[in-house]
Design goal:
Blueprint: H1 58-67, H2 71-84, H3 89-102, H4 115-119, H5 176-181, H6 204-209, H7 223-227, H8 230-244, H9 247-260, H10 266-278, H11 282-295, H12 299-311, H13 315-328, H14 333-345, H15 349-362, H16 367-379, H17 383-395, H18 401-413, H19 417-430, H20 434-451, H21 454-467, H22 472-484, H23 488-501, H24 506-518, H25 522-535, H26 540-555
InterPro entries: BBS8 (IPR028796), TPR-like_helical_dom_sf (IPR011990), TPR_rpt (IPR019734)
Protein name: TTC8 protein
Region (Disordered): 1-51, 135-196
Length: 556
């Protein structure tokens, strides 16, 4: 509620459960390989704990380490084998795959766009996009989503999601100045370049996994020779792409290998598309993925192609692609989840919730779907139903700060006060960094405001700023408490700080406009009210204040 010209930000369950379901694919062994013969062990020999038999074949032991995901031991054992027999292709291939798995990141899930990629992008995007056709231009949703008065929004104007994903961790800065000012933490801003984020920098992964030097000298590698050996070429490509992060050499190898396969191997076309995507050549990547889909219908290829369309800011095309994929793969969870994410980013929350429910029909333990539906119910003023979804996550074994924070908020707004403080205490004990601690103290401040203990609320908001000095919502609420104490100058300073930290929030602008109007500073009041209207055009109190100020200016 907004009474007497003051406004608290909405109850903010902005600590979404940060579980990322990155599928770790257990890769099969070399095709056509004959099973290893069973060796007869000596008397008394055998498994001791987790160790292997002392007389086991070294290559088989390395393969066993690889299958049990003990990649460091596998790599070390392969190194000893290669010292004895430098031309051993099996050991070389196995070590390559082990080093790759140590730094492997699933390309489908990782979609982190750096500031350089955003602001130095040569792909032209329509400045005046049609409603419901753009993710980069705020305010182009189809409607049906909650207003910023109910559900907080990100810097890009999208409502916050119930699940932390790489594409939702921060907003899209519209100017370089705004991008540089944004604090660079894992929760609030993108890295300067994507190479400094999830991907290893060129050469650093080699130094980490091979203290003695690089395993493969890229400058002396004869790519044409390996391109004629398909099994070795695939392992080598993944090593160059994931471990060395040398996209150009990987692209050269993939181009030679697909030429050797007479352009009939869909796997190489997908890898070429991945290289083009990382190099920013999105249209070329689109051609490769489409060509691969014609040869072999694969879910992963559909997801890669949808990533290209989303990067080109074509969400409607991505939606159509997902729906075509559902015709060929009915009930596929990854495709349903992709549709739900796009609807959520376009502020079409009701459609997103329906698709997340479809996901749960296929997989009732899908953490992202449960978290997003729970968040949607919470912001739809249904905390009792949201509480059921978060309890379901607790029953599934999810046990972290974000979940208990959300349980505490749901218990408070569902009037189950006996569990509220207990949940927040558990959340504070499980917090892994200062940002999480700050969010819990901020929500505790809201609980204190709700029960009327303003002194406790003041202390909670102060503790929020101790843990996170860039928490704009805490600055705004502290300013309102200072206004109640008639500390006008402190309140104005806090509101100005909040406005500079979060220009996309309408509350600091509106509160500053109201405060300036009360003390007679009408020009600043009018400027701040205009910023508030730009951030939230449907705010009635802002429109009334602007109307009063315009009438006053007309009388002068």
């Amino acid at each position: 509620s907004r009474s007497h010209g003051t406004s608290y930000p909405s109850k903010r369950a902005r600590t979404e459960p940060s579980f990322r379901q990155t599928p770790q694919l257990c890769k099969a062994g070399p095709s056509g390989a004959a099973p290893f013969p069973r060796r007869r062990s000596a008397p008394g020999a055998g498994r001791r704990g987790c160790g292997m038999a002392p007389d086991m074949e070294p290559l088989f032991q390395a393969w066993s380490y690889f299958r049990r995901r003990k990649f460091a031991q596998c790599s070390a054992l392969c190194s000893r084998l290669l010292e004895r027999a430098p031309g051993e292709q099996a050991a070389w291939s196995l070590k390559t795959r082990a080093l790759t798995e140590m730094v492997y990141v699933d390309e489908i899930e990782v979609d982190q766009e750096g500031i350089a990629e955003m602001l130095l992008d040569e792909n032209a995007v329509a400045q005046v996009a049609r409603p419901g056709t753009s993710l980069k231009v705020p305010g182009t949703s189809q409607g049906g989503g909650p207003s910023p008065a109910v559900r907080p929004v990100t810097q890009s104007g999208r409502p916050i999601t119930g699940f932390v994903r790489p594409s939702t961790q921060s907003g899209r800065p519209s100017t370089m100045e705004q991008a540089i000012k944004t604090p660079r933490t894992a929760h609030t801003a993108r890295p300067i370049t994507s190479a400094s984020g999830s991907y290893p920098r060129l050469g650093t992964a080699t130094m980490l996994t091979n203290p003695d030097g690089p395993f493969i000298n890229m400058s002396r590698l004869n790519l044409a020779k390996y391109a004629h050996k398909p099994k070795l070429a695939k392992a080598l490509f993944e090593y160059i792409f994931h471990h060395e992060n040398d996209i150009k050499h990987a692209l050269d190898l993939a181009a030679l290998a697909t030429e050797h396969a007479q352009f009939k191997d869909w796997w190489w076309k997908v890898q070429i598309g991945k290289c083009y995507y990382r190099l920013g050549l999105y249209r070329e990547a689109e051609k490769q993925f489409k060509s691969a889909l014609k040869q072999q219908d694969m879910i992963d290829t559909i997801l890669y192609l949808a990533k290209v369309y989303l990067r080109l800011d074509q969400p409607v095309t991505a939606l159509n692609l997902f729906k075509q994929g559902l015709d060929r793969f009915p009930g596929e969870v990854a495709l349903l989840c992709g549709i739900a994410r796009i609807h959520e980013e376009m502020n079409n929350i009701s459609s997103a919730a329906e698709y997340y429910k479809d996901v749960l029909k296929q997989d009732n333990t899908h953490v992202e779907a449960i978290a997003c539906i729970g968040s949607n119910h919470f912001y739809s003023d249904q905390p009792e139903i949201a509480l059921r979804f978060y309890r379901r996550l607790l029953q599934m074994g999810v046990y972290n700060c974000q979940l208990f924070n959300n349980l505490g908020l749901c218990c408070f707004y569902a009037q189950q006060y006996d569990m509220t403080l207990t949940s927040f205490e558990r959340a504070l004990s499980l917090a892994e960094n200062e940002e999480e601690t700050a969010d819990v103290w901020y929500n505790l401040g809201h609980v204190a405001v709700g029960i009327g203990d303003l002194n406790l609320a003041y202390q909670c908001f102060q503790l929020t700023l101790v843990n996170n000095n860039n928490h704009a919502e805490a600055y705004n609420n502290l300013a309102l408490l200072e206004m109640r104490k008639s500390h006008i100058e402190q309140a104005r300073a806090l509101l100005q700080t909040a406005s500079s930290l979060a220009p996309h929030m309408y509350e600091p602008h509106f509160n500053f406009a109201t405060l300036s109007e009360k003390i007679g500073d009408l020009q600043r009041s009018y400027t701040a009210a205009q910023k508030s209207e730009e951030a939230f055009p449907g705010h009635v109190d802002t429109q009334q204040l602007l109307k009063q100020l315009r009438e006053h200016f007309a009388m002068l």
